[in-house]
Amino acid sequence: MPEHSTWLTFALGYLKDTLSHNTSVIGQSFIGHLEPSWQSFEPITASAVMMLLVLAFALAVRGRLAGDGAVIPEERLTLVTFAEAFLEYFYDLAKSVMDAERAKKYFPLIGTAAIFVFFSNVLALVPGMPVATSNLNITMGTALVVFVLFNYYGIRAQGMSYITHLLGPAWYLAWLIFPVELISLIVRPITLAVRLMLNMAVDHLILSIFLGFMAVLVPLPIMVLGVLVIGVQTLVFTLLTCVYIGLATEHEAH
Length: 254
Known about the structure:
By secondary structure, this protein is mostly helical. The chain has one domain. About 70% of the residues lie in helices and about 0% in strands. The chain is built from nine helices and no strands. The protein has helices at about 5-20, 25, 40-65, 80-95, 100-120, 135-160, 160-165, 175-215, 220-250.
């Protein structure tokens, strides 16, 4: 994807120029004796900033919910009301995919994924802000966390039957069904990561391009479209996470 500059690009560039006089601090690569690419640190730094913001958001909401007036709903939009509405929506989504017991049990992963993806996507509406979900390394890392955990949940819930079901209903069809099931399992984190990365990278790039033409009126329709993209991509990522967990932990009784 084409690169676009954010405030992290300039901050890391300034850090590079400041330390470039001391190669013992920066170091050099073993291949070609080149200085490391400072732009490669931008997605990691953006995701770290986002994690700190999400943690601060969670602590602020938890502090207000721990108060005496937490039982009474607030009439205006606050952090608490937003968190309640946001998490309640995705909890209902999880219950619609699986039963209420499993939705409650696995909601820490589902809710965390929804919050991280949503807030990372929201930064795409702010010009010059780094968008962690527009980088394949970050989205692939997030998808791999979901991939590892839903397989772990499946093995813990079903035991070895979670592995043997990949062989199909009959042993003589295992040679045909097992490769298909294995490929479909491996492709899941790839599709999660690539879909999210492409949509957010293109959305942020288009907004940056239109801001270069006119900073006020022209980007407004693009920003409205960006709000739709943010909501849809958060919903799709979270919905697929619920589906994968539901399929992995599903028994015959379900």
